[in-house]
Amino acid sequence: MSDIKIALIGGSGLYDMNELSSIELVNVDTPFGKPSDTIITGELQDTKTAFLPRHGKRHHLLPSEIPYRANIYALKSLGVERIISVSAVGSLLEQIEPLDIVVPDQLIDRTKQRKNTFFGDGIVAHVGFAEPFCPEITDLYRYSRSLDRTRLHTGGSLVVIDGPQFSTRAESAIYRSWGAAIIGMTTLPEAKLAREAEICFSTMALVTDYDVWRTPAEEVTANMVARNVKANAIIAKHTVKDMINMIPEDRKCKCASALKGAIMTQPEIIPYKTLDRISTITGKYI
User: Catalytic residue at 209?
Assistant: First the structure.
């Protein structure tokens, strides 16, 4: 499995990847429990790829119920070095319309209920997160032949909330005052965990709605989101197929060495049980 270097994490509406050939179903147990669902591996455009539906194939997991640590750990154990994450979001800007795609370059963390690190229990690490998305991947979206350039927005901050409720109008107004572009519920702690695991990470944010700021009468509903989710899933699949062979084989980004110098605890005092639990993450250094 170590030759599977690229993974796709599917969000709302993207529960399968029928475009994969030579499919194999992989069940992975991790020290952090089971992933959201069975991992599907196969070939996409002749590139070995893994696919994991974030909410499960039948969308049975709330955003805060997703086993984020298990998901990232499982993909790391398969040898994955790059993750393209697909996520449904709401727009906080007039010029970003439903069915547009945003490739954000910054994150604002408003989550409160989620485990966001592999570390603790006797081992401390502080990874850099100033640039939360891998530039080597995010730069490739503009070359996709499937994307309408007028519907692609690169850059901007993604606010991540716990959910599952949508924002209040007051919250939406605050996020807009911060200059944020989009709002979603799942990119964190995914991106933080990927950085700790030294996996390159990028989010393809698919816009489903205008959140609740736009007019006094407009509200976000599950039905509104569902209508656009299906169309977005088709866009995401075509985009990933375009991008997959453009991803360089060798990594020159800082993601690949994010843990170098980040582990603060002296190795001799780290409990064996703790070190054994996260050896897949720390093995290169300890």
Answer: yes
